[in-house]
Amino acid sequence: MRENLIEIDSLNTSFLTNEGNVPAINGIDFTIEKGKILGVVGESGCGKSVTALSIMGLIKKPGRINSGKILFSKDDKTIDLTKLDPMGKSMRAIRGNDISMIFQEPMTSLNPIFKVGKQIAEAIMLHQNLSANDAKSKTIEMLDTVGIPAANEKFNEYPHQLSGGMRQRVMIAMALSCEPKLLIADEPTTALDVTIQAQVLKLMNDLQSKYKSAIMFITHDLGVIAQMADEVIVMYLGKIIESAPVKKLFLNPKHPYTQGLLESIPSLNKKSTEELFQINGNVPNPLDVIKGCGFYSRCPKAMDICKKQKPNTQTIEKNHFTSCWLYE
């Protein structure tokens, strides 16, 4: 039986600019089950990070959530996070405690003038009501859990004294220190080399199994999605254009955009002289009014109706959905 931890219902988020109102998220719907990993994939600018920030209540002006619901299950109650004051006591109690986030670049997320141990301990004291000594003990325990050697010594070091991989581990330790129900990871391995990336991904898998946290894993790397996710949503121009369990998506992608993303992955089976597949064209300007499908101008299978009308979401099979006129 599916038990949803969070439900996103018709969420719309936009940013007011000098050129007009820019829609970043256009009426998206999805759920994250308790203890499961949801992969969110798509090109830069498709709305992945804005979705995460909307859930965290971290959309700052000139951005705003215009409509929709973010329903979070806590203590057998359902809370609509869009109704809470982002800086209010209720939202601050959820953010960092029940829902935590790992950002893309740890160097900009960690305060450079405070020791890393103090930054983690401060979050633990705030959310777990522990004494300074107990918070320090738990911090050292978490640093050790995420594979940081000599955790006692690293507690007293500043962010600039650590490597990129170690800083990312510190961010993971901080995010998991309060044992959140949902962990949002926004491209946490982008700035790391492949060896460290593999270590961090294994670490997150191990910790997810240990703490039973649900994870929303945001990336543009489909290889990471294949390794990490239980289910996947594919975003394009602020919309979800396909969603499916990870195996179904890789074995039977339906939307031409999803098919293009998978075809563009380098393969050892391709000849050395064979060019990599690429999706032609560019993502449309979000300020442009598009009557039909946002992918129309780049789609190799486009039809006349694609330009004139937006496609409805079609059920391909159980838990596999896509928005494309090919399946009407």
If you had to describe this structure to a student in words, what would you say it looks like?
By secondary structure, this protein is α/β, with parallel strands linked by helices. It folds into 2 domains: 208 residues, Rossmann fold (3-Layer(aba) Sandwich); 70 residues, no CATH class. Helix content is 33%, strand content 26%. It is built from 12 helices and 12 strands. The strands form 2 sheets. It has an 8-stranded mixed β-sheet with strand order 6-7-8-3-9-10-12-11, sandwiched between helices. Strand 11 and strand 12 form a beta hairpin. Helix 7 runs parallel beside helix 8. The radius of gyration is 21 Å and the shape is globular. The two termini are 29 Å apart. The mean pLDDT is 90.
Q: How would you sum up this structure in a few lines?
A:
The protein has 328 residues and is of the alpha/beta class. The protein has an eight-stranded mixed β-sheet with strand order 6-7-8-3-9-10-12-11, sandwiched between helices. It has a four-stranded antiparallel β-sheet with strand order 2-1-4-5, covered by helices on one side.
CATH superfamily of the largest domain: P-loop containing nucleotide triphosphate hydrolases
Which CATH architecture of the largest domain? Answer: 3-Layer(aba) Sandwich
Provide the CATH top-level class of the largest domain.
Alpha Beta
Class of secondary structure makeup: alpha/beta
Strand adjacency order, main sheet: 6-7-8-3-9-10-12-11
Strand content: 25-35%
The helix count comes to: 12
